[in-house]
Amino acid sequence: MAKIVSIHMLAPRKGVTDDDFEQFVKEEWYPNFVPPKGAVGYLLKGMKGDRQGRYAWIWEFESIELAERIESEDLWRKPAGNEAVMAKWGAVEKGFGVIFTDYVVIE
Prior knowledge:
alpha+beta; Alpha-Beta Plaits; 33% strand
């Protein structure tokens, strides 16, 4: 069973500071988002290199089947059914899911 790692590049919308974006993720997104069993995700901020200061979501799925099911059922975008959090997410984020690559882990 091959693991999948999915990397999504994203950025706050114009007018949203990095501090506001990070505060939203820590205080509103993380507490309201429950990843499906077999999936784990992290918001990362580039420390150095080509994407220094930029953001990425990194997702790890225990199998190709799980990654495809989560995407087809749109489960990874729903923080525990909290519509207010989703509405605010749309107001602060851009590019989620637009620039991404899913990788198969070579084991």
